[in-house]
Amino acid sequence: MKKRWKLLTLLASSLIALTGCAGFGGIDLDSVGEEDTVSYFKVALNQTESHPSFIALEAFAEELYEKTDGRYVVEVFPNEQLGSQQEVLQMVKSGAIEMAIVSGTQLENVNVDFRVLNMPTTFSSIAHQIDVLQQPEIVGDLFASLEESENITVLGGYTQGERHIYSTFGPVTTPDDLNGKKIRVQESDMHIRMIELMGGSATPLSYGEVYSALQAGVLDGAENNIVSYLTARHFEVAPYLSYTTHLVGLDYMIMRHDLLQAMPEADRELLYEAWYDSMDHHTELWLEETEAAKAETEAGGATYHEVDNEAFNEALQPIVDQYVVTDYQKSLFEAIRSADTGEGSTN
């Protein structure tokens, strides 16, 4: 059930002393008096304070505080201060913390149905993805599927961006261009199959080794979003990025189900309003950062290329047949695809 503190200021000061750099979304804790009864939520995040996820969570904290007249204070703990994603998922489940941002893989390990949202071809763009995440008639049952067994409600998610192929040898406009090429992939059966269907030779490798492997010719290419293309400096050794948009990644916001249920209905509605605003804010930040990353990589010699998206989607169709197998998964996938407004890629 909800935990309440009368002396929030004293508690928050103690936690700041322990963690050093948690964020309260710009909230002036000195304005919270000892006579006030408030609910205090900790949010675990694995990203840094400069990442769009942290900035959007800070805005979420401020908006929820304002909408509820100070009844709820959210503190964001970045940089894995509270533990790895696997650890914080268990902490939300047990009630040790209230909320966390976790990757799609973490939820797949608990309920395989989440794979539908983390699969190639499910979303055509970031706009399509965020629109679906805010439609309870499509994702409501999935987001509630862990409530009884795990004490976890999924509120929604933040995009990880559109992922594309980049290479050392030239543009990749059709799957034929990847024939025999060694493409770095995450250590996931589905992602390995994804690269194979796209025509490449899937090469699982740790993220930190990719730059030197591209430089040495051990790899011919890799796949990721444009922001990571910049931050990992991969554009320096693989200067050809092709807009395959084969996957739109996703992180989820999870919350203790018992805590959410204990909130008055009006406050739950305000929390969801603030969270949906946060999703939109994060998307704006992500798109801005993507454009800035594209400009910087182009200045550094990278080139960007359109592709035959129909050819790649056709090549990837077997992955849908392989991983979307139950009636529920099929209906979920079809509902998501039907919700595509055709706005296209947000590159």
TrEMBL record:
Keywords: Receptor, Signal. The keyword Signal applies. The keyword Ribosomal protein does not apply. Residues 1-22 form the signal peptide. CDD domains: PBP2_TRAP_SBP_like_3. NCBIfam families: dctP (TIGR00787), TRAP_S1 (NF037995). This is Tripartite ATP-independent transporter DctP family solute receptor. It comes from Trueperella bonasi.
